Amino acid sequence: MADLPSISVEDVERHSKPESCWLVVNTQVWDLTEFAPNHPGGPEVIYRYAGHDATTEYTAIHVPSLLLDTLTSTKLVGKLETGIDIPEQWYITSTNNSKDSRPKPPLETLINSHDFERAASRDFSPKAWAYYSSAATDLITLDANKSFLDRIWFRPRVLRNVRNVDLRTRILGSTDLVLPFFVSPAAMARLAHPEGERAIAAACSTKSVAQCVSTNASFPLKEIAKDTKHPIFFQLYVDNSRDKSEALLRACHEVGVKAIFVTVDTPMAGKREADERVRTNQSISTPMSGVTAKNDGKGGGLARTMGNFIDMSLNWDDLKWLRSVTHLPIILKGIQSAADAQRAMQHDVQGIMISNHGARNLDTSPPSILVLLELHKCCPKIFDTLEVYLDSGIRRGTDILKALCLGATAVGIGRPFLYSLNYGREGVEHLIEILSDELVTAMRMLGVTELSQLHPGLVNTLEIDDAVPGTVGHPYAKWRRVLQAKV
Amino acid sequence: MADLPSISVEDVERHSKPESCWLVVNTQVWDLTEFAPNHPGGPEVIYRYAGHDATTEYTAIHVPSLLLDTLTSTKLVGKLETGIDIPEQWYITSTNNSKDSRPKPPLETLINSHDFERAASRDFSPKAWAYYSSAATDLITLDANKSFLDRIWFRPRVLRNVRNVDLRTRILGSTDLVLPFFVSPAAMARLAHPEGERAIAAACSTKSVAQCVSTNASFPLKEIAKDTKHPIFFQLYVDNSRDKSEALLRACHEVGVKAIFVTVDTPMAGKREADERVRTNQSISTPMSGVTAKNDGKGGGLARTMGNFIDMSLNWDDLKWLRSVTHLPIILKGIQSAADAQRAMQHDVQGIMISNHGARNLDTSPPSILVLLELHKCCPKIFDTLEVYLDSGIRRGTDILKALCLGATAVGIGRPFLYSLNYGREGVEHLIEILSDELVTAMRMLGVTELSQLHPGLVNTLEIDDAVPGTVGHPYAKWRRVLQAKV
Amino acid sequence: MADLPSISVEDVERHSKPESCWLVVNTQVWDLTEFAPNHPGGPEVIYRYAGHDATTEYTAIHVPSLLLDTLTSTKLVGKLETGIDIPEQWYITSTNNSKDSRPKPPLETLINSHDFERAASRDFSPKAWAYYSSAATDLITLDANKSFLDRIWFRPRVLRNVRNVDLRTRILGSTDLVLPFFVSPAAMARLAHPEGERAIAAACSTKSVAQCVSTNASFPLKEIAKDTKHPIFFQLYVDNSRDKSEALLRACHEVGVKAIFVTVDTPMAGKREADERVRTNQSISTPMSGVTAKNDGKGGGLARTMGNFIDMSLNWDDLKWLRSVTHLPIILKGIQSAADAQRAMQHDVQGIMISNHGARNLDTSPPSILVLLELHKCCPKIFDTLEVYLDSGIRRGTDILKALCLGATAVGIGRPFLYSLNYGREGVEHLIEILSDELVTAMRMLGVTELSQLHPGLVNTLEIDDAVPGTVGHPYAKWRRVLQAKV
Amino acid sequence: MADLPSISVEDVERHSKPESCWLVVNTQVWDLTEFAPNHPGGPEVIYRYAGHDATTEYTAIHVPSLLLDTLTSTKLVGKLETGIDIPEQWYITSTNNSKDSRPKPPLETLINSHDFERAASRDFSPKAWAYYSSAATDLITLDANKSFLDRIWFRPRVLRNVRNVDLRTRILGSTDLVLPFFVSPAAMARLAHPEGERAIAAACSTKSVAQCVSTNASFPLKEIAKDTKHPIFFQLYVDNSRDKSEALLRACHEVGVKAIFVTVDTPMAGKREADERVRTNQSISTPMSGVTAKNDGKGGGLARTMGNFIDMSLNWDDLKWLRSVTHLPIILKGIQSAADAQRAMQHDVQGIMISNHGARNLDTSPPSILVLLELHKCCPKIFDTLEVYLDSGIRRGTDILKALCLGATAVGIGRPFLYSLNYGREGVEHLIEILSDELVTAMRMLGVTELSQLHPGLVNTLEIDDAVPGTVGHPYAKWRRVLQAKV
């Protein structure tokens, strides 16, 4: 880079048209004339910065290495002349700026996951906030994920020595967890912080907490895993092109991923209306899935435009292919019925993850804890056969403890960790400490000191038991046959 | 019209008294001196415009052809002189103007049926909004129609190939529907848009969606059906004068109506208090039923004044007459109990429609989905015998899907389509697209691709099952007898 | 009165001290020097008007005849000189004036009982509003009285000839009611309107609606019943002095009262906190019970200070005495359990009235409709044996209809009629018309035309059935015995 | 004290540095140079007042005798010169001042316990309000403690002689209670009023109401009990150092304590977030437990910093030790399950107290009344064996009555009495009168006059019965074993 020609502000400004389009990023001057029409996020956003500095906008969306990875170095035409006054008009306000100019509340004043949510709603860009916080249509499942947990009472036992609490557990045969919760996969963490998934990884590494990385992460897996020592899982969206998925799995094997969480509940993105309502000309690239998310003209939201590569035809038969291309434990992420849990037991998978995708896919899909109870009622054998994970709605140490009492091996936590990225790595670490402390406190109050002491007898689920289906099959089988005959 | 005499503004203004009363409508000058006392909406509103231009008010209420249909052409005294300045005082503000002068939100920003409702509440005249949105007394059933649907959880199945979704269904033996929902009948769509039911018809024709036309439509059936190719049903209020009903049925036969939905739940209009509270001197004519709705002095609301022609003595015996005068499939619209569903099976009808009239008739009448469950519990045989339709409270693709899982052949949607008329034909089309997209999304998330795959096992109704009556008869039969003896 | 001496303003003003205290009421000048210390409402309020005109305050509280009835005519010292200027300072603003100086909404704009409540909350004096609207402590039963009714669904029957609806019923062997509801007894209607219970009587007479007059009415029974032809019941608080109660019963016999509703649920007034919070120096006399209500120093509220004459020791044995002094049908008003309903069957009474005193006595006492269901579950025989009335929470025609379907002979309506007094006799008549119209509409929608057609099969009570006790006795009888032994 | 040297303001001001630090408290001048670094609340607060008068701050936190008890009298260097002008700058505003400068509402306008809560929320310092009102995390149990009581209906009996009501009961064999409720133990009543627990004791003594004194009381037990004649219980937190606990028990024996309520539900303080959010440099000493509460740097709240002396290893085996060091009746305070109630029956204790620590420890721990019902369902024998007390959520006379009907011997009331301290001793007495009056009223309305007449048949608990666990053991015992094997 030292021998790049020095280019003046005036020179750059001369290339402000589609026919000759230069942009400055981090003092490097790039010629994007050829590339712009092929920009996954559309050429408009590039033309908007033509002849100007685009560092702020670029950094908010792309990993630093992307320009060089995407273009040949011949497009790097020079380095911006230093020691000069940058004209004021170069500073173009991003469309994506924060909603609130007040400084963030000090991190130590945040004492629970709700605080992180509140802060994020203030500090994030409208688009980031909408993308993360939104859920399917009328938000009924979003609310139920939490309210069903809140209607479970503990049955605390007292007068037990609870001085020493041990939260360790071994999963999947050989992976040791220091804490029985992990970071659930979520797309595009760079929307929240420039370091995105890397900041999460750094915090998890420090705290020895497991992290499940999304196919739609903002960084390549290798960058996320670099210099970390915590257990990493990989969330897989199976690509229409199996080759791409296999390449991702190879990357998983290389970085020592511990398990594959294959998403089975998302043939397409759900209708997340808050996400659709926030218009933006911002586009976001995801290096692993290779797609770029942006709002389409029809208000499709980031999620919808990003999901096109996902194979809508994915079905049980495809699990054979998956097993053939990875030796890692496979967890089916997104099971929502005892019927499918039973079916999972007939396949070569090592676990299921009860999830309604954070209530983002199908509104009035059942709250996660209800499905966990359905398993106890309809196919309790699964707890002897597979490991059962759960996410969607976990916000408190008490929530974690309830799921564990009811047989979950460990739980995933999604949005709260994205919100904690508001404070970067320190935020993630602080949230881990909070949840860990809440869990220890709750266990002591419940009279238990090890995860092996947990069992359903320590919770009273009667207030939601009436909503638990008691049969896997179809209560109106006879009626169904007739209907099918008629139509 | 070319040879009509040209009349000056001054000439018109000379006839501004009851004894000589001219009005201008669409540049035509009419002598309404004789007609005014017989105006179904009362003479006052005519006298108010005497000697002035009444185009705006007239157009908001009447079909253009009505003046000529009602009066002989001898009352058309001339054409307003052109090329002159219309005096400013001619512009009389309608009492019926929009509540909000801001421009409507752009149609593409409306992404669900609730958005249409919100926009209509702002853009409609107070009277139109009150008439459409109002429901019986304390609005308990209005709320329950939706909340009972919201308390049904899906039981989604995953890992199924859901690439291709097919929403087609055949009903009533030979009518093919492209989508399993249709426009429920509602009176006086011109309150919402000058093109009223015709705009709905045009949109339905484009989208191949079925439409059920009300006896109280603002246009004659023939005008609505003109140049359309979608399935049309006809909603029949049986008239005190059977002759009039038979004439309507003949019109149905002529335009190729596919089925008669005879309303059985409305011996009189319910007490819709919002409707009664909005006073107006506006009157609305309905060409088919031949009545004119206006607020009576006692706050009766539009609905109450319009329903006087409906036969309060209509009963099961009358179905023989109805069958004798039409060969079309008959659907009993407004069934609200298993007892009446059972009784319907003993008559020559082809279907029933569960409905509480959009919660407009009897407050605390049961939410529609509850009655559908009652049929499963008390007379499941009906699903083999008759087609079962349902309306009242359907607002989302998920709502449609739940009703279909529980055995509905198709569902009707009322108010949302009236609200979509805020944007005319384009609004109706946009709403159809939204609902269709929501339904497809929900089906994929549920793991189904054809309507024939739907069955009750895909929904969890436990949270409302406790409210479903288990018996058609009277649990306190013995007590009843004694009471009757005593009184 | 013609020969009363004429007294000047100056003369009156000279007697403005306790030692010589004159007041002007309706131009009559009274010497209250001796009486003031014995004034049931305390002497202060009298001294406040000493030497002044007290007409406004007096009229708001007392019946016109009270002064003459209470004092001998020797205390009437003269007549205020006419044709003179009354000094402005004579007009003392009452502490009890209306909360809102805006004119009342026109009567015809009130279309349901809630409208009357809203208007009364604006127009009544703070004290009157507090006294009428208040209920026991946390208002839980107040809310439940209505919400339990709202959770009952109708099971409407359609296709029945409902042209002619007949609401007549015969009760207590020989009393014919035109409408199956009546005005429930309530104390001190003069707080709402100078004509108080007389205005109610006049309206009831016009509309042939029954009225139950309270022991604490603001007028003597004879004045209320004068010139009326509607059925009158009498609500009896049994006095510590049986003589007084017997005198009241003799008055009942004289004016042709049809039944005695003896209150059994009020050994003392409940804790009605809104009533206690509004301080006032206003006192209110009740001519029949002979007591005067005013706030005591300790915030006891009007109700508490008024109830001291009621016999706290009243018990089942006293019914023999009651029967011995009246031949009229006896209804036990305030039954709240099947146990007491069963006990009532063993006594010589003709009916019971389920009531929680409008939720004014014991908070979390059961909502009335719940007790009615308890009777069906625990002692259905009562419906063959006694007549069962009900009040507390009836606000709509649908509420009336539900109670009648569940076996009530007729229902009482209290607060709404007090609120309707805001408009005097016309208000009461208007409310009767509204309730009657709502009831007719609801019956038609339910598919019934006579009260004899009503039965429990027309309502779905499943949403509240779980709260209905199934046994009269004590589920933990064994436990009870042990406890009693221990204490 | 008379012979203490007189010290001038100027002299005091010279000692305003850590190296020489004098403070004035109640005109006494103390040299705290040596003590400050050892101050349990940290030296900063002392240095803040160095060379100044600290009377206000000291008095708000410490008992008057503490300085002399803690320091030797040699540190008392003199007496502030009298008759001089105190410089204005000496008056340092406490960080702990009241939130609202308006005068308190007059005591007689407070008519229920909610009024006391509202007044306290206005008048208390933010820290005091936060400490008392806060509860665990999302406040679900806090709300449920009351709402579950509110969902219990009475089954009132009428027509009983209820003139004379007797609330007396004998507990623990020989202690007579005039009223069946007592003041539940709560820490640091001086936060609310300088007289703290002594004011409560004075009021209880006047009213003959029992009081349970906390280990963390702001005064030594002896000071609280001095000159009183009411029954006193002692709440014991078992200290890591058993010696300290034994010393406390000896003090109990000396002052004639009637029973030991040993807390079994608090191995550590719960996460009370409101408490943690209010930062303060105020520290509070508790003479009996010897600890000082202050916010730690990490937002631990007063409660967390205060609980460090409590033995986290306390378990059933320790009850033997407890019995060996006291002859007094032992009540296990904090039982929350039938399983532990059963276990209590196997130990030499005289009673249990159902409590969730005022919802302050574990959120979604069961509401107290639910646990009481669980005992009836799972181990009714306990009512014959032990006395059962209950606190957490009692706010009304009706609440007390419900708990008594369901078998509680007596109930404890905590926060309301702390709030009543807003008015000192008079406030406590007023609250006792209110609760007593509410209880008498409710009993009359229920048709009972003595506590021995109470039994579960007088309440209808059906609305919460579905939430009562029916088994002590583990419904999924089999599943549990498998899980343990796997992990």
From TrEMBL, chains A, B, C, D:
Signal peptide: none annotated. GO terms for molecular function: L-lactate dehydrogenase (cytochrome) activity; metal ion binding. Residues 105-464 form the FMN hydroxy acid dehydrogenase domain. It catalyses: (S)-lactate + 2 Fe(III)-[cytochrome c] = 2 Fe(II)-[cytochrome c] + pyruvate + 2 H(+). The keyword Ribosomal protein does not apply. It is found in: Mitochondrion intermembrane space. Residues 4-81 form the Cytochrome b5 heme-binding domain. CDD domains: FCB2_FMN. Its cofactor is FMN; heme b. Its EC number is 1.1.2.3. PANTHER family: CYTOCHROME B2, MITOCHONDRIAL-RELATED, S -2-HYDROXY-ACID OXIDASE-RELATED. Homotetramer. This is L-lactate dehydrogenase (cytochrome). It comes from Amniculicola lignicola CBS 123094. The lineage of its organism: Eukaryota, Fungi, Dikarya, Ascomycota, Pezizomycotina.
